[in-house]
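Structure (tokenized):
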């Protein structure tokens, strides 16, 4: 399923979340690099024969001030919190879209097309209000026609067997593969950054011991190395590589187990239960992701999950 086939509200919130996430990590990277550069300048000042001690001290002070300015900007603009909010909207709209197309609760009642579409639009509006705290989305659509694509209407009209086949392939298998890939990527990144941090700390310790043996050595990069290690720790904590390995692997396994039960789906009622179970699993993982990010989350009034 292409992104353009989802409701316009999903595309707007997804684009906003991606942009905010990108800007947040760009500013965080700039802040850490400024602190690291200031530490390098401090090491250079230790060379007495270089001179320019005062100008270099001024440069170091400017770099540190710039880093603190970036930190202040990040807090004032609340990039991280807004990123989480828009991502919550996007994921809630996504799961609602799949429920609508698969005729799962709350869209499984025998209603007219008009009533069904009105319920879908009302659900999207409730999600946006509850998740984003009444903050308008960038490029948010004004008309309901943009929310229900022709692709969604066609899938909603498919037979039970066609919907079942499509859902297993495009939703269950796709999401399962996404979780597995993310778990592996985070495992590799966590191991890589842990190695970098440990190596830097061991090197700093070795140089500190060397300085004890040879106190006359004018150059001591220990402070630079420790600043580098601290910066790497801050970066990995922001990325949450270690925290995401197990949850993503568990979510993938749960979806695999649910997929194995799909053979017992023989009628509309059992298929509705199956879709609800899958969407609840995905919703639960996203809710945990938000909780790990220390953001207050409330379930939408529609009770459709995420």
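Design, position by position:
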């Amino acid at each position: 399923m292409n992104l353009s086939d989802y409701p316009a509200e999903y595309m707007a919130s997804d684009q906003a979340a991606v942009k905010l996430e990108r800007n947040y990590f760009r500013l965080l990277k700039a802040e850490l690099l400024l602190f690291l550069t200031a530490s390098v300048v401090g090491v250079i000042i230790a060379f007495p024969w270089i001179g320019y001690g005062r100008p270099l001290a001024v440069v170091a002070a400017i770099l540190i001030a710039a880093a603190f300015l970036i930190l202040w900007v990040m807090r004032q603009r609340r990039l991280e919190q807004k990123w989480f909010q828009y991502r919550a909207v996007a994921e809630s709209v996504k799961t609602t879209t799949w429920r609508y197309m698969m005729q799962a609760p709350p869209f499984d009642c025998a209603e007219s097309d008009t009533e069904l579409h009105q319920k879908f639009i009302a659900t999207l509006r409730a999600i946006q209000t509850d998740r984003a705290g009444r903050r308008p989305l960038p490029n948010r659509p004004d008309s309901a026609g943009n929310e229900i694509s022709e692709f969604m209407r066609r899938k909603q009209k498919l037979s039970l067997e066609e919907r079942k086949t499509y859902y297993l392939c495009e939703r269950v298998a796709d999401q399962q593969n996404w979780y597995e890939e993310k778990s592996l990527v985070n495992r590799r990144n966590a191991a890589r950054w842990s190695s970098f941090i440990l190596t830097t700390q061991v090197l700093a310790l070795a140089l500190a011991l060397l300085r004890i043996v040879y106190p006359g050595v004018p150059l001591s990069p220990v402070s630079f190395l420790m600043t580098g290690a601290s910066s790497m720790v801050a970066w990995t904590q922001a990325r949450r590589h270690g925290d995401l390995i197990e949850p993503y692997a568990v979510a993938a396994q749960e979806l695999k187990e649910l997929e194995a039960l799909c053979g017992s789906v023989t009628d509309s009622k059992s298929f509705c239960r199956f879709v609800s179970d899958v969407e609840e699993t995905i919703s639960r993982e996203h809710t945990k992701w938000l909780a790990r990010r220390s953001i207050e989350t409330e379930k939408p009034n529609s009770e459709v999950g995420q």
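Reviewer-requested clarification: Residues 1-89+111-156 form one domain. Confidence is low (pLDDT under 50) at residues 295-306.
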